[in-house]
Amino acid sequence: MRTYILPTLLGLLLSASVAAAQTARTQRPPASAVVANETLLDVAVSDSSTTYLVFGGPVSLVDVGMAGNYLVKIEANAVFVRAKRRNAPPTPMLIRYGSKYWLGRLVFVNRPVLQLYDFQKDGALGMSANCTLAGSAPENELALDRELAKKNKVEGKLSQLRKAREEHQAVAVVENDLVLLLANVRNDKDFTYLRLKVINKTNIDYNVDFTDFQLVENAQKKFLAKKRNEARRPLAPSGGAANQIITGRTTGYLTYAIPLYAATERGYLEVTLRELNGARVLVLPVPSRVINRASTI
Which of 126, 146, 213, 246 is positioned for an S-S bond with 252, CB 3.0–4.6 A? Predict the structure, then answer.
């Protein structure tokens, strides 16, 4: 009897194994649900300003691959990201908001072109209920490469500003034999145009890596060594060239266009010049009254 039962049992076991393998193949997710790395959105992050990501629901989880290189903060439906050091390596980032997921990649840049990523619309994210797809960055109204006419308009007004006579030499800062001062400022309905003067009294060229602008509000003097209660908001420049060089023992001018804003009496615009391959940083506070009373262009 055993000679007949054993082959039968082996046949049954073999049939069961084949059926299980076929079932496993049918339950495997299709290749279209797997997200390739090249589809991930690169989010530009720097160590001098904060990048903001806004989603269509409350954020409950942020997972950064190389967390030691980036600072991350969750606030309601927004995520704030800043690099801890220069030239931080790229790293993936997973965010869960509501019942959905977003997957992207953090990439360090010296001067972010876009600092606000708006993912509140599902259409922009391209997400479904069962899989995660990379989002797409929102249109930046102030990006110079978005509309040629706007770029030409901004650059045309900057050209006019370069020909103006210097008006605000009292707004200046001196550091390491370098002088940074505000030469001119103008406004229109969309932008504030700045012309900065740099006097290099050293024999070493000053290579401007990038210029950072921040709107500082509620600025008060220190009282009994307590920290000042300030609110800072980065302003991405929308005009002006990067990597400009002020050679030794010469004077140079830098022109920029930044988004128009309104500040209170205690607010000011903080302009920071950072040197490429150097530690000579120049920080110039421009009082709000100077910008608020500036002529139109």
Answer: 246
